[in-house]
Amino acid sequence: MKIAFYFILLSSLLPALSIAGKRTTASIIAKEPVTMMDLGLLRLNSILGSRTFPGLPLATIGANYNARRGTIDIKVSNPVRRASRKQCKKTIQLAKKIFIQTSKKKKTSNIHHYFQHEGTNYKNKINWKDLANHVVITGIVLTEKNFQDSIYCQSKLMKNKITY
Prior knowledge:
Layout: H1 2-20, H2 25-30, H3 36-50, E1 60-66, E2 71-80, H4 85-99, E3 100-103, E4 106-109, H5 112-115, E5 135-143, E6 151-156
Parallel strand pairs: 2-5
Antiparallel strand pairs: 1-2, 3-4, 5-6
């Protein structure tokens, strides 16, 4: 009886052992974990790349994670007739309107919705409202005729200060 049991157990493992040796690219990729940051950036870039936003009809917008600084960097490349600091500031302000709602004097951001996990395990562990403090927007205004005349400016999402 024991011999029959071991024979059945061993024979059920044999197909798994023969398949385990065949590692394909797809099987390797399928076993890689996806972080909340990866998924959030995928969602965010999907929205930013598929829509036009008020005041930024020709702008190209994309986001990535800067591991060195620990920030989410959003780059807004906006073609204009003539690049200037004023145009760059306007580009930053329009980009901020995508993520910030203002009621009276209080500003709130919705960017955490792209990164929030759908499960309940992270509700008490992560301060989602703090995520907006780690978002940097870089505006690049490009003169349509001569890209050499471009101007760069940068600002944190929840701050008013703009650096050139």
